[in-house]
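hey m, so remember when u said the tokens were messed up on ur end? i reran from scratch. heres the input so u can diff it against urs
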Amino acid sequence: MSTANLSVLSIDGLLERLESRSKLHAGYPYNLAFDSHRVLPLLKYTLNNLGDAYVEGNYGINTKDFEREIISFFADIYHLEKDDAWGYVTSCGTEGNLYGILMGRELYPDAILYGSADCHYSVVKAARMFRIPFVEIKSQIHGEIDYSSLYEALDKNRHKPAIINVNVGTTITGAVDDISKVVAILSELNITQFHIHVDGALGGMLIPYMEEATPLDFSRYPIGSIAVSGHKFIGSPVPCGIVLARKEKVQSFDIEYLGSTDTTITGSRNGLTPVILWDAIEQRKHLFKEEVLNCRKLAEYFWNKIAESRNFALINPFSTTVVFERPEKFLEKRWQLACYGKIAHIVVMQNHNQAILEQLLQELGVMNT
């Protein structure tokens, strides 16, 4: 009996499906307009950034020099002095959140973790994994944290250190928590033992280029760590991200056989993604502000068209996420929309233009053909 044709899968078939699905994608915050062809020759090497990005280690087939350049770029846009900056390229935003919250736990073993009802599920996951007491704070109707509720919760537990997750672009509505207000609450309550972690998966790359937004500024605010996704605004063929932290707060442990230190969540780390991110940043860093403003402009256009039709629509300041009524299942699947309860959203990214948004609006019944 022949078994030669048991599998119906093929690379050609996969490529055809991926090309087709990439044309109608609106619900998830991924920039599909990247260009990573220059890194293809690297695929023949086993690139593994074992251990700390700032310690070369014994395994030499790595890209740690590129990784350090990426962290330097992020330290610059968030105003953290190079000598005080530490970080690494992560597998995704979730790993960055896990690292930042674990850092808080290592600094303050008896701390309480605070996060809004709209925080990413990885924040609650971190609380479970690290056995940190978690207090959920109410959100305002548009998704931003409710500051009076945060004040009450911190006041009630002011005898305990605090780890506070600050959202810069919530998952569903793209809302941004105002870090200046969080810091003011801590100051008013005279809480001095705290760690502020910023979940800036997408918004962390929008805020630095948007005027009037409260800046993500390490020199102005006592931010402990920040996580940003790489495959979102910057764009990448594989999920990745960065975590940036104050060097003085990083705990490390020597691993003799690596010739390096254990400072990261994972042991083996992808050595290809630092080059992908470095290449994208080098190509487009002078265009980032223009890209942010264009995505915001298109998001406002989409929001206005729905609002003009007298249907429910929401767009938060400093966001490219547009929330609207959940459509029928067919459209949800066709456009790969992110849905929650009775609402859905799109996230306008660099691969979108007015024509594709108008096509979606027509299919939603908002615009006539």
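this time it looks ok to me. The chain has a mean pLDDT of 96. if urs says something different then somethings off w ur setup not the seq
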